[in-house]
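haha ok so turns out i had the wrong file open the whole time. this is the CORRECT one, sorry everyone. sequence first:
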Amino acid sequence: MDEQHIASAFDRDLEGIQARIMKMGGLVEEAIMKSARSLENRDVELAETVRKGDKAIDALDELINEETARLIALRSPTAGDLRLVLTVMRISTNLERIGDYSKNIAKRTGVLSQVPAVNDSASALRRMAREVERMLKDALDAYIQRDVELAQDVIERDHEVDQMYNALFREFLTFMMEDPRNITPCMHLHFIGKNIERMGDHVTAIAEQVLYLVTGERPEEARAKADTTSTTPLEE
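then structure:
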């Protein structure tokens, strides 16, 4: 097989993988908003669809990993193409983790639906999740368009998500000190807030991969975090 045929086969294979990435991204965007909406509306059935839907996200991640590994083995991509394949793998991994955080939020909806609401915290968390979902959409657009400026904008907007989380964290502490009955729901709500904040970190990682793909350079220093509450992520 000549080089032109090899290149054509590589492009076809990669096009199929990238289509799966965009499908996966759409499912993750949907999971973010459904999990936040189920929390705000105390909709246990909607939360259950998020939990079940995570299986499709995981399956796409596994399929993308298999296809990219096969692509590397069969097509022996050159340096630039290899960078693109590795970028796809990393984006897939970050999308899968965001899906997991959405599922974690959905798991808490059932518990929180059984206890009194704490102020408008659920609405505030949904607003925070909406910002992360918008960031994700822009990060994926930046990937498709190879748009460095848009990717950089996404990275900078993560500070806003961190600030929203910090404000909610302080509110939860106040609510718990004012009334011991708020302790249990506020602990769950804080966990959800931290999950959304971590989603923002994974979206930022996707945007950073776009910068690496286009420029060939990685950020020289670790990105400064605006989350002042903890350096240890909460996971389940």
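The CA atoms of residues 212 and 218 lie 5 Å apart.
again sry for the mixup
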